[in-house]
């Protein structure tokens, strides 16, 4: 057993060293053991760095989890019309043999590798670090406990039930079956509560490292998940092949009445005492993300800590760049794998500053007159939060890895979670006024320069249901492209119904808006599109006419007032409708994305989780079983 533990600790130290530039002047790596590592805060920190390091592994979060988790939902979807293995992941009919995720170094195994590193750190610090008398070691213990909770949260979000491992592996525990997720929820919530006493609001000097604000935010996020709805095997049948039903936990410790007051208290403390604040300008916030200017103590609380030459975030999700262009220094296509569901743009009010940052309908291409943005087609909306043209001072110079660090939690989420918790009648400490004050802060930033509109929205809300519906809407508009929505819809028990509504709204949009839906009158849209180019700060821009509500007079022969307008042409060079009854359909695959079939191939309520990959099932030598037999 000691040999096994030394191997893991040494591997962790080496991995941790890869994240820092300083040299060690202590004993050689070959002689590291638990006593020397976990009694020294510097060596312990390197071991904890190794926990973070697993996110950057080739097929971990970098190249498998992040490109595939979180969509399709009612606000985010996979743009491709294909019916291949990639499409199966996002359209809720993935097999355990899916080649994208059925790899030995895929996210399932990599997340457990990170948990093993966390377990070694936690047990080592408890035994050798004297955290009760050494505050610096207590802080490192809190960091390790928090990171273990993060890793388990990622597993639970993707796979449902998984084995519970809260101690380093021994020969007796190498092979384990899945555990009831409530066991894991209760342990990681307890771990985070313990960490409250170890961490401070100044512990995290970088958004790459976790501190007290993040730990309390994670407590609230997990509490909302644990007390919410989910597809769960029947009690006592986890790991037997029983798929179960969508239900709440029957563990009284995980009820809303117990968890909501605790979670709200944690968030109130962050709001009152952390010093965090919303970035006043929503566009400036996302420009800083693209430029890797992520100063701690403001809005961004924690990011997936890729190095500046690691990670495929913009490679996957940025506004589409077709081939080599000025704004993507590579000869390959970049970005645009997923985007907002097209109608999301119309969920924003005209003066909501988040709209044109979050949802864009252009892509970059050089058609012989330099790189310019061109209309992308009504089905191809992109996450404007992620743009190669905004990477003006980043070190990216091409290749698959751009170094953009995905935002995992920011202060806006603290405020909206607090609003949801405070508004709930299942919270004995319900405080409607506090809920509305948190919601107001988010909306006033969104309507910067038009704050009276934000105030009118909040002041017009009355009662729990109305406030909740506004929170649900604002979580969509605030976080589109950040992939929080799937977990939200699952815990609210509206995953399938939300996507069914999405298909209905898309169908209304393409049919010329003959009528209204949820307050939006799509008959106010033009069928034809005109566009023209400009510049802003030296970067080309595009202006479109016919794509906004109220521009329904756009036709194929009469350009809007002003000069420079160009009609949208089809591939044959003829003026054509931009929105018509064939929008969102694919003749190649017979896929109509304005129907439920465009969002899922099987009932998403019964397919909420990825199956554990077959390679992990085989390697478990009969001890591990997928419960969701429909896979």
From TrEMBL:
Keywords: Cell outer membrane, Membrane, Signal. The keyword Mitochondrion does not apply. Residues 98-202 form the SusD-like N-terminal domain. Belongs to the SusD family. It comes from Candidatus Cryptobacteroides merdavium. Residues 373-616 form the RagB/SusD domain. InterPro entries: SusD-like_N, SusD_RagB_dom, TPR-like_helical_dom_sf. Its main location: membrane. This is RagB/SusD family nutrient uptake outer membrane protein. One of its GO terms (cellular component) is cell outer membrane. PROSITE patterns: PROKAR_LIPOPROTEIN. It is found in: Cell outer membrane. It comes from the Bacteria.
């Amino acid at each position: 057993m000691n040999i096994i533990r030394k191997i893991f600790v040494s591997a962790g130290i080496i991995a941790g060293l890869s994240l820092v530039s300083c040299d060690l002047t202590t004993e050689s790596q070959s002689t590291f053991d638990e006593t020397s590592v976990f009694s020294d805060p510097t060596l312990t920190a390197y071991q904890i760095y190794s926990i973070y390091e697993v996110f950057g592994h080739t097929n971990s979060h970098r190249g498998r989890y992040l490109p595939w988790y979180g969509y399709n939902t009612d606000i985010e979807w996979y743009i491709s019309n294909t019916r291949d293995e990639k499409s199966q992941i996002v359209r809720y009919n993935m097999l355990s043999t899916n080649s994208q995720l059925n790899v030995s170094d895929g996210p399932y195994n990599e997340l457990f590798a990170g948990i093993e590193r966390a377990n070694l750190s936690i047990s080592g610090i408890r035994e050798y670090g004297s955290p009760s008398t050494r505050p610096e070691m207590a802080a490192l213990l809190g960091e390790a406990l928090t990171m273990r909770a993060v890793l388990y949260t990622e597993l639970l979000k993707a796979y449902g039930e998984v084995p519970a491992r809260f101690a380093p592996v021994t020969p007796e525990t190498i092979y384990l079956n899945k555990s009831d997720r409530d066991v894991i929820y209760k342990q990681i919530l307890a771990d985070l509560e313990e960490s409250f006493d170890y961490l401070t609001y100044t512990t995290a000097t970088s958004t790459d490292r976790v501190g007290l604000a993040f730990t309390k935010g994670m407590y609230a996020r997990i509490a909302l998940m644990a007390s919410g709805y989910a597809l769960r095997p029947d009690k006592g049948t986890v790991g037997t092949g029983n798929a179960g039903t969508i239900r709440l936990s029957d563990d009284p410790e995980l009820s809303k009445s117990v968890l909501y007051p605790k979670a709200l208290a944690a968030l109130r403390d962050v709001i009152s005492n952390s010093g965090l604040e919303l970035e006043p300008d929503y566009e400036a916030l996302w420009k800083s993300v693209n430029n890797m200017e992520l100063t701690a103590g403001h809005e961004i609380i924690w990011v997936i800590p890729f190095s500046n030459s690691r990670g495929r975030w913009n490679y996957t999700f940025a506004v589409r760049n077709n081939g080599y262009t000025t704004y993507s220094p590579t000869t390959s296509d970049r970005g645009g794998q997923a985007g907002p569901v097209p109608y999301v743009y119309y969920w924003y009010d005209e003066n909501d500053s988040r709209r044109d940052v979050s949802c864009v309908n252009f892509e970059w291409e050089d058609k012989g007159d330099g790189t310019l943005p061109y209309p992308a087609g009504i089905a191809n909306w992109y996450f404007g939060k992620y743009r190669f043209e905004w990477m003006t001072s980043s070190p990216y110079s091409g290749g698959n890895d751009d170094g953009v660090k995905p935002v995992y939690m920011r202060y806006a989420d603290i405020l909206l979670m607090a609003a949801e918790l405070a508004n709930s009648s299942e919270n004995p400490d319900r405080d409607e006024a506090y809920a509305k004050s948190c919601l107001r802060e988010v909306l006033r930033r969104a309507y910067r320069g038009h704050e009276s509109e934000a105030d009118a929205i909040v002041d017009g809300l009355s009662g729990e249901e109305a406030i909740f519906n506004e929170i649900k809407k604002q979580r969509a508009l605030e976080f589109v492209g950040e992939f929080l929505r799937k977990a939200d819809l699952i815990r609210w028990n509206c995953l399938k119904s939300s996507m069914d509504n999405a298909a209905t709204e898309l169908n209304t949009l393409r049919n010329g808006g003959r009528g209204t839906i949820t307050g939006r009158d799509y008959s106010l849209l033009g069928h034809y599109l005109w566009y023209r180019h400009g510049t802003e700060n030296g970067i080309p821009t595009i202006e479109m006419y016919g794509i906004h509500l109220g521009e329904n007079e756009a036709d194929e022969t009469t350009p809007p007032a002003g000069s420079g307008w160009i009609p949208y042409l089809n591939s044959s060079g003829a003026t054509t409708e931009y929105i018509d009854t064939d929008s969102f359909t694919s003749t190649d695959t017979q896929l109509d994305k304005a129907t439920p079939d465009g969002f899922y191939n099987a009932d998403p309520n019964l397919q909420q989780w990825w199956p554990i990959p077959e390679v992990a099932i085989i390697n478990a030598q009969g001890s591990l079983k997928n419960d969701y037999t429909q896979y």
